[in-house]
Amino acid sequence: MIDLAQNTLDGLFLGSSYALLALGFTLIFGVLRRVNLSYGPAIMLGCYAATWAHLSFGAGLLALAAIAVLCTTLAGAYVERLCFAPHRQSSAIAAMVASFALWMQLEELATLALPRHIYDFPPLYAGAPLDFWGLSLRVESLVMLGAAIAVCALLWWILYRARFGIAVRAVIDQPNAAQLAGISVPRTFMLTFAMASAIGGLAGFLIAASHEQVTPMLGMWSTLKGLLAMMLGGLGSLPGAVAGGLALGLLEAHSQWFLGPQARDLIAYALLFLLLAARVPWMTTRSAS
Amino acid sequence: MDDYAIGVLTNIGLVSFLALSAYLLLVAGEMSFGQQAFFGVGAYAGGILTAMYGWPLPLAALAAMTLGALAQLLVGLPTLRLRGLYFAMATLASAEMMRILFELLHFQRVVDGDAVGPDGTQGFRGIRWVFEHGVEPIEYLAIVYALLALALAGFLRLERSRLGATLRGVGEDAELAAVLGVDVTRCKLGVAAAAGALAALGGVLFAHHNTYVEPRNFDIMLGVHSLAYALIGGLGTALGPLLGVVLDIGALEGSRVFQGYRMIVFGGLVALLLVWRPRGLLDERTVQWLKQRFS
Amino acid sequence: MAQAALFLILCLVPALASAQAPKADLACKATGADFVYDCTIRLSRGGKPLVGATVTIGADMPSMPMAHNVKPVKAQAGQAPGEYRAQLDLEMLGVWAVKLRLAGPVRDQLILHYEFDSKGATPAQPTRHAPAMKH
Lengths: 289, 295, 135
Fold this sequence. Notes:
heterotrimer; A: mainly alpha; two-stranded antiparallel sheet; two-stranded antiparallel ribbon; B: mainly alpha
């Protein structure tokens, strides 16, 4: 029983990192109707920049977080200018393939700067996990969960309370009408992209600091988990992204405990496949081509 | 020709099968992130048959192609009504599932005193058919390209035929095609089987060229790359995906100037290229223009 | 009589075949240059050092099997019997599947997984694709 509770807790915390990743993907997909395959690699570049700062100057956690967010946002802006802005009114596939090309580019940039296949990252919290009625609670996990909730709340506030959010929602619903009403669609896309990248940078920093390591697999891993969580929660829905992320985390934690790491991944993919094949309504309502 | 050039040319040929497989699906309107799984099915099946049961390579290749076609149908049937990103993610999920199954596959047999066969994450060593039959690297290269030429001939024939036009029609607008009386389901399933067989053929040839395969060979990067080759080279003709493969592996591998920076250069160039040519180099318009120019 | 002899020979052939599978061992040291390693290959067959073989050494990255091709290099015979030396120029650090193509007394191809770091190479097991993230 205690195992079940512990796994559930672990799953929620794992899921919050997935939720953060999924939020970024969803923001881009929801607004631009495009999949950004460079999202994970941009995050990796941000984390690597922070790692480099840590190795070169021994920068503190707050500085590292700022560097990660800043560099990811810059990388995201680069991707947006080169891959998404030119294809705004035409081919979604071309944008996606271009983002794949930049995925390769960003990953190679990162691994050229830091070629080793594992780097230490300073821990988010150096103390011992909290003990809560026999369950182990890592402080880093609480921070991650808090961040996921905070980011979701912030996004909700931006979309439904701030003026910029009205523009974004207008662009989502009726891009042409929005343009006619004087809203700059390209600028909206660019700012949305920047927001998504900033979230990604934060997610990357928290993940790196929670795991106390950074590896070249971070790009692919973030992309896969973010996409999986986004699809599970329902394409293009922000609360869905969080739900999908948490669900994926729970699924993985329990599968891994009972059946091992290979089963963990197998079950997650199988679930996604079955849900897609069954054309479950919440997953397949948004047009996605 | 030195061994290195032969190796690079063989690799170009092998990846071309995969790129053509992705291209076929793209023409019929499906974007697949998962063709690498059927490449893997072909590799493992072909390797098992020749290394563990002494089958001759041509027979093993045919069996592998059949298995590849069946595997792709297995994925294609439940996903018939999915479109766009949903279909793509379904193919990604199924491909990763297959790759994990390869990691769990432990199936060995004692042949000539050694245990031979797939051994999970340790991979599948000892696919020695080329050594047992004295096939030189250049002869193997000829085999690969002969088969590739055959596949290309089939594609070029298809493109001139009514079936080819029907497939492109289904790819552009399936609803319209259905209204015009096309059996869209049959088309899609036929394309799936052909694409699976094509990828599997590439896989068999890869396994016997490399003499060793492991599950990590068939990961997402391979699949997304082959999709990219088709999209960059152009969807107007089957020569498009080949052009994509040659551009990446051939040109930049050949010019070792870019060693270590290859993807930085190539990635940037591709993104720029797509701004100019969103449907790839040899897109439908270019192919039309070329046909008019040279007819 | 002839049949008995044939039978005997056929029985011996599998035994001969198993004794002929070559085995290899790799020891690499990093040189100063980026990703260049001095490697010593030790070949043996049936427990005895394998001499006079033509060894070509190349490498592949398992996750991109046909892209990161390292230019194959012919190894020179080393000092001890069964020893061969070559310089391997990789594109980056990490786990590589080193390919040894043998010609001469025996024709075969051996694949060895080694992890290359800033000092040299250590034997590696082909691991799972997913990163081992701490939980």
